[in-house]
Every structure is written in C-alpha cells, then in structure tokens.
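Much of our argument rests on the idea that a fold can be written as discrete symbols. Part of our work consisted of pairing the sequence of a single chain with a tokenised description of its backbone. We regard such an encoding as a compact summary of how the chain folds. The amino acid sequence and the backbone structure tokens for this protein are reproduced below.
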Amino acid sequence: MSAGHFTTHLDEVIAYNGDGSYTAKRLVLYPIGATGYAHATLLMMPAGTKVLSHWHDDREAVFLGLAGRGRFLLDGVERAAVAGTAMLQTRGAVHGFKAEGEERFDFLDVALLTDRGDHADAAGCFCEVGEVVDAETAYGSARALFAGRFANPAIRFVGERTVAPGAGYGAETTPRGCEQIQLVTRGRGEVRLLGRTVELRAGSVLYAVDGLDFELRAGDEGLGLVAAVSAMGRIPVPPWFAGLRSAA
C-alpha cells in the first residue's frame, strides 16, 4: 500500500478553470475521491474578478479566507474577507465572491453535502477565526467553525487545528466510521503512514479514513491545519479500504 494515495501537495495538483473568473484545485478528487459528506476545494481568484451569485440545493458550505483580500456575499450581505474570515452558506443561500486589492484572493470552499437544512439569517453566518474560542487538545488547540450549525449530522468538525512544536496526533482524530481532509496552512512537520514518512509544509494535504494508522508531528515551528471530518459512506467505500483497518 502506498502513502501516496492519502497524501499530496497543492503544487502537484492540476488546477481547473471555474466559471471563467477563477481557477481551483481539489484537495481530494470530487465527487468520488472521498467517500463521505465533506469535500474541500481551494479557489484562486485574480484581483478584480468575481464569482457571480448562485445557490445550491444539495449542500451547505464553509468558506475560509487563506490569502489576499476580497468580499464574501451572502443573501445580499457583503463582508470584507481576508485570511481567517469564514462564512457559512446554508442550503439554498445565494452567495458569491469578489477579489480586491492587487493580489490573488485565495479561499477554501468546504462543501458539506446534504439533502436537508434550513435557511439562516446571513448576519449570523460570518466570523473571524481568531475570535473563535480555542479548545485545548493534547496536541495544541482546535477551533471549530459554526459548531452545531450544520444540517447534516454526518458532519463532525470543520475548523482549524494548531499543533504545538514537537507535538502531534494520529488516527484518534478520525472517529470510527469517519474520514477527514486536512490542509496544512503554516509550519512544517511530517506524517508517517503505511510505512513511509512524508514531509508536511504549507499546502500539504492529508486524507485519512477510518482504520488508517497515521502519526502526524509538528516541527520546531509548529503546524497550522484546516480539517473537515465527516462520516464515510455517502458513496460506497472502496474494498481496499477494508484492508487498512486493524484487528482492533
């Protein structure tokens, strides 16, 4: 078994064109590269461009600014967006994006597939990650974005993790029956899985499924990550995954 099935770097991922105003890279292949209800895509918008307002009847989503600056639009409400600005798009909410300034506006689109969900007032669907209360963990801390707001109970966590220098975590962060998609946003470290050690740096992606035994560890700078955890099984799980599960 190869660790390359579960790790990559955004530098290695081929970008595709969106609606003409942005390019994008999938953190995992969509819609069948992961089996669960959460998928994540990096959107990259040149300065002065926009993504026209639109809506979805099959998902809610969390959008998180990573670099540059722009604006998030939701049901007629506009908010300035920079690194750390987050927006919750409930099912059916009209949303769009603008890139401002002189640099590219990069943000993460975490699509949370669902067939249910209630519309929410746009005013309560924005936050700054730095203002979210930290939850202490054995490896550092975690900030859950819009906790308790997701319509689909299959979604277990969307948010940021901070791994202290020299600290780490492993498969215990993937609950039984779940999978997770993780993007390194800052720092350096490594992950060991399937008998191989893979370097982690900003832009590294780790896809972890129930039963995949891995050990992630931060270097001297620590690590910052964004993670989305959901139940597996929205589409059939590949038989090969069964071989990853330990006897325990």
About this structure: The chain has two domains: 13-131, 135-242. Helices lie at 239-242. The first helix runs from residue 239 to 242.
